[in-house]
Design brief:
By secondary structure, this protein is an alpha/beta fold. The chain has 18 helices and 11 strands. Helices cover about 40% and strands about 15% of the residues. The N and C termini lie far apart (about 75 Å).
């Protein structure tokens, strides 16, 4: 029989009353099956899924639900849920539910990650979990082979970027792994169409009710912020406010990838503009800074950077870096390299490739790929399934890659033409969410994927969205200002947040060197 949550006495009372009524109905029949073990949804007190949760003193549960909420069948899901109370003082009334991103990235094993979340929310209860399909859930949608081809899980040296100078060959190296993943999961009896933000939102609201919370504050990370907006869309009465951390919204993420590509490219050019405006030496080095990104790409297309690497067994492989690979790598590495970007593009334009070995992380080449905290099958199911009927065909994807090869190094909606089925989401799933829910969107200045443009778009239909951009930081920006602002927002979500600390992190000094 399920063990009752220790710190939620209202829920305990409801549960016991229901059990007592059932007992009266079944009498003392020793052969009657305990209804509590069959009731769905339900929450059972269990051991914590990770050592980090145990060390943090979390109350841990397993949530049992249906894989398909709209048409319940035999397939069930189990999710680890953790409730972490503040260290001192009484928790404030509304708990903060954390929505992990990735998609498919589990933070439950990282004590540092969760300690940062606790610091962010202050004297509040934190409820965190692995969503359906994550590594600590059952079933876990595991496709480790996809790490071999995805630019997100084996950064830089993947077939998506480096396997060939021909974009169609790069595409082919990825799509086989996508098809293999879909086939593997369906052969395991998993209905992959159910692993999306629509279903996750239902899971979370059932958990909210079982823990007996009337309202929650929702805190999303990256694509988890997209899940938060879906939660607001489907369960508006369950949310008091939202933190949209470095957000990647589904209704924007699934737009044509070339839109995202040009947004990222604009970020690169904005950095060159900042350098030219702040430093006369930078302007002298790059008088044509507005054209510098395109010229660097054109030079690398005409004369790619090609290097042979070896694995530990001495096997050789050739990596190819053309203009598209340059932009893809810059997209992934911008927070670490922005200060030297002006001199790097100046060198490339001058034909000097001496810095490219470091830029492309050649010394970090590793033929064996892993993504230990990711359920990569969920990654694909989420990215492709949330498109619904907007999922591209193979012809759509081939034409898009032919037009702009660099999109292969971005998040992979273009490979979803090789995913076997649309996600089970309502037709309005990708509509912009319409809501008066107050939200705080947090961005990093050096985050080319998830800049303030996303929040500006969201504000058209969610007028109470505030946004802040932290200087000099990238995706998942961490500084004191972040925690100060989040706590102030949660204290009074409708008040204007003081963002005067947003420049707390100083910009790095520009690397100004003439071409060699």
């Amino acid at each position: 029989m399920p063990i009752l949550p220790r710190r939620h006495p209202q829920y305990r009372g409801k549960y016991l009353i229901a059990t007592f009524l059932v007992f009266l109905l079944v009498g003392s029949d020793a052969h009657a099956k305990s209804p509590s073990s069959e009731t769905l949804p339900r929450l059972e007190s269990t051991q914590c899924a990770t050592e980090a949760l145990t060390d943090l003193g979390a109350d841990c549960y397993t949530f049992h639900g249906y894989e398909n909420w709209d048409e319940p069948g035999d397939n069930r899901i189990q999710l680890p849920v953790a409730v972490i109370e503040p260290d001192s003082g009484e928790a404030k009334d509304v708990p903060v539910f954390f929505f992990p991103g990735g998609p498919g990235y589990s933070s439950l094993g990282s004590r540092d990650y969760m300690e940062q979340l606790r610091k962010d929310i202050g004297n509040r209860t934190l409820v965190t979990m692995d969503h359906r399909g994550f590594i600590n859930a059952e079933p876990a949608l595991e496709c480790p082979g996809y790490a071999n081809v995805s630019p997100y899980h084996n950064i830089i040296h993947t077939p998506a970027i480096t396997s060939s100078l021909k974009p169609m060959e790069r595409l082919a190296s990825i799509t086989g792994a996508v098809e293999d993943c879909y086939r593997k999961l369906t052969e395991e009896g998993i209905d992959v169409a159910q692993y999306n933000q629509y279903s996750v939102s239902r899971d979370v609201d059932e958990i909210r009710q079982l823990l007996d919370y009337d309202l929650i504050d929702a805190f999303g990370s990256s694509t988890g912020s997209g899940t938060v907006t879906s939660f607001i869309q489907y369960y508006p009465d369950s949310v008091r406010s939202a933190i949209l951390g470095w957000p990647w919204f589904s209704h924007l993420r699934n737009r044509p990838p070339v839109d995202e590509f040009y947004t990222a490219k604009q970020t690169f050019t904005d950095i060159l503009a900042l350098c030219a405006a702040e430093d006369d030496a930078c302007r002298e080095m790059l008088p044509d800074w507005l054209l510098a990104i395109d010229r660097a790409r054109r030079n690398l297309d005409a004369r790619p950077y090609i290097v042979d690497v070896e694995d530990s067994a001495g096997n050789s492989e050739t990596l190819y870096f053309d203009g598209a690979a340059f932009l893809d790598t810059l997209y992934l590495m911008l927070p670490a390299v922005y200060a030297e970007l002006p001199s790097l593009v100046a060198d490339i334009e001058a034909g000097d490739y001496s810095r490219l070995e470091d830029f492309f992380l050649i010394d970090d080449y590793a033929p064996e790929t892993e993504a230990p905290n990711y359920a990569l099958g969920y990654f694909l199911a989420h990215v492709c399934g949330d498109m619904g009927r907007n999922r591209p065909t193979r012809a759509d994807s081939i034409a898009a890659v032919q037009r702009e090869p660099a999109i292969l190094g971005f998040e992979p909606p273009r490979v979803c033409g090789w995913w076997g089925k649309d996600g089970n989401v309502p037709d309005e799933h990708n509509d912009p969410p319409v809501s008066d829910t107050p939200a705080l969107a947090i961005h990093g200045q050096m985050d080319p994927c998830c800049g303030t443009r996303w929040s500006e778009h969201l504000r058209r239909t969610m007028p109470n969205v505030q946004s802040v951009e932290f200087q000099g930081l990238g995706h998942n920006p961490v500084n004191e200002c972040r925690s100060t602002m989040i706590q102030a927002f949660l204290d009074d979500p409708m008040a204007t947040v003081d963002d005067s600390c947003r420049r707390e992190v100083a910009l790095e000094s520009w690397v100004i060197e003439p071409p060699h």
